[in-house]
Amino acid sequence: MKSLVVVKLIIALTGGTPHIESFSILQEESGSEIKVETKAEIDASSFVKSLETALTNSVNGSTASGEPELPAWLTATEDRAESDGDHSFLVITIPQPDVAACEEELKEKLPAEVHAFIDTNILRHIEANTVPFLTNDYIKKEILSLNPDRTFTKTLARPGGEMFQIYRQLTIPSSEVKRLVEYERSVVAGERSVKVGVGAASVIGVVGGLSALLGLMARREKSKGLA
After folding, report:
1. Can you point out the beta strands (E) in the chain?
2. Which of 17, 29, 194, 203 is at 20 to 30 A from 123, Cα to Cα?
3. Residue 120 near residue 106, CB atoms below 8 Å
4. What is the rounded CA–CA span in Å between residue 198 and residue 70?
5. C-beta of residue 194 within 8 angstroms of C-beta of residue 133
6. pLDDT by residue (tens digit) across 171-223?
7. Which of 151, 163, 155 is nearest to 67 (CA)?
8. Would you list the DSSP string of 24-35?
């Protein structure tokens, strides 16, 4: 929220000695006023420091009252907090001129963001788009339905007007993390079994070929001996 701060200062010169008649700081939007009156002689540097302190306190108080307080879950998720096996992360829209546009963007990007997070932080040997049960309906039911209230709309002050961003916390529960990891293990184990089977078949084929060759050579030697 913008706040106009007005400073009124009266310095009088009496007999060559400067002193302050009065000065006041008025915030027009809130109507609050800080007023100081004195007739003591002034030291220029001390007075400037005092005035700077008063202005700083006034402006900071106005800014703090105008900015919405960030929810605790938002600040706690900035570093991708993990607890009890759950994985939580933020999805943030780009600045938009209206909230409806942010909501539409968020709706479209959520499934893709879930896939990207799973690829980066959960799966190691396969990709999320190869998991058959990880459909958009599954994501909506098992992930997006959790903590629906953890959505925060941020207002951004821009020279051309206000812009908006939506912050949405998503949580992949430990039960779904476990299911994904177990599926990946089964795929990897199956691939290894296939490789072992192919390798064994190749060895058997080579051994069989050598046995046949040795048999043929033995028969030839036997024939030569009889001749």
Report:
1. 5-14, 17-27, 33-37, 82-83, 86-92, 151-158, 161-172
2. 194
3. no
4. 58
5. no
6. 999 999 999 999 999 999 877 666 555 554 555 665 566 666 666 676 666 66
7. 155
8. EEEETTT--EEE
